[in-house]
Give the backbone structure.
Amino acid sequence: MSTNSRRVFFVSDRTGITAETLGRSLLTQFPDTEFRITNVPFVTNQLAAEKAAAVIRGAFELDGVKPLVFSTLTDPATQFVISSCNEYVFDLFGTFIEPLEDALGTESSHTAGRMHGIGDVGEYERRLSALNFTLGHDDGLSPRDIDGSDVVLVGVSRCGKTPTCLYLAMHYSIAAANYPVTDDDFSQRGLPKILEVCRDKLYGLTIVPEQLSRIRQERRPEGAYSTLSQCRSEVAQAETLFRDEKIPFLDTTTISIEEIAATIVRDMNLR
Amino acid sequence: MSTNSRRVFFVSDRTGITAETLGRSLLTQFPDTEFRITNVPFVTNQLAAEKAAAVIRGAFELDGVKPLVFSTLTDPATQFVISSCNEYVFDLFGTFIEPLEDALGTESSHTAGRMHGIGDVGEYERRLSALNFTLGHDDGLSPRDIDGSDVVLVGVSRCGKTPTCLYLAMHYSIAAANYPVTDDDFSQRGLPKILEVCRDKLYGLTIVPEQLSRIRQERRPEGAYSTLSQCRSEVAQAETLFRDEKIPFLDTTTISIEEIAATIVRDMNLR
């Protein structure tokens, strides 16, 4: 293994999503190193911890370089087994538990956390109903749909509306509809009629035409649809519409779906 | 504010997803306290940090109790502004940066991290194409679809197949199809014909009939569909099918979509 490559393990007692989210975020701070990542979820007992530790030690023997380990184990005994592997075990959870106990003046429960659990039935159903709404109203809109939506994304075909709607539903339990603007809409002046009743819920997405053309070519390479000139014309007209109608909008070209969603939640005050 | 209620701020220079994921996970360890959470994303400069700090200080004056603050700021100067608010600022990022620099023998870039960025065009397109696949193949399956799928979830209507497929696509870029088993399938012996060619990709979901009945009632309260007896019969036959055909399966009743997805990824070795 080259010196600029490093093995990384995410060890957790549930899905590993927390360890991976913070761990990957920390690793982006070291762009010159290539990280080879292994997720080790569901380490819920001593035996599982020992197995994981054996794999981590084995990686050191294989590579000659100590791997980095990010762990979010809530049980101190299993964490101890992992921490014993080497000095580069980052205990993302335990590090903050004691200071938090001080801050709150109470002991922690030391049990594996449940986030977004179905245990919270109300929250689960809100999320499911947001997802069902979004799935049922993708790429199209009837006046009835608008009543039920929290936000309506507007933009040209393939600018990121659908994944963003799904992310909003999945992570924020937001009922997100979307409306694709096309040449038909541009040929009329002003806001498409159907959108008039939900002006306050509109949010625009735009994208640079070159990127749009590339994305469309993946989907439908032949015909005018994916040509750069068509993309340029649609994007320009969509942005004019956003400006004229004072619809807040965001350029999705260089940001991720997570960031688009978080920006919409903030801008539209959806929480 | 009651003594068992505490205000919490998540402060970040991007979406706040990382701060919130770890922060919420840590807070689950203190089930007796009610946390009132405010997300403060996009704190990218000194002015934004000072604004956030003013809000945090204001909350202390309002409540008479110091709020907890979880931050993931990459810029030491803005972090300093936040850290000065009170002694309960947990620097989720900075805490690990120095030890990581030691481990890697290199300096960190101290720039806001980009996760899942469109910058990584290949990854973005994999994700989009997984999402498009999953959206296009929800609740139904043709032999052509099976070729393109990484996994095929099997289960009775409303047991969690669709949200799980979407989560697999969104977070793991996995092309997930699903097949709803119905009384028509149960009336024939053995595996439904269409599934025979993809035996190795099958994964079953099940659920306790009482919960299934409740979920179905939300959707379609009248008719046999949501009755407990119908749910009992379908679930029993689905589980018999899984056992007879040696399809691995998971009970989704008490676990979250995140956990269902992570379990499938692990069990089916999808990474």
About this structure: Confidence is low (pLDDT under 50) at residues 114-119 of chain B. Chain B touches chain A through 77 residues (CB under 8 Å).
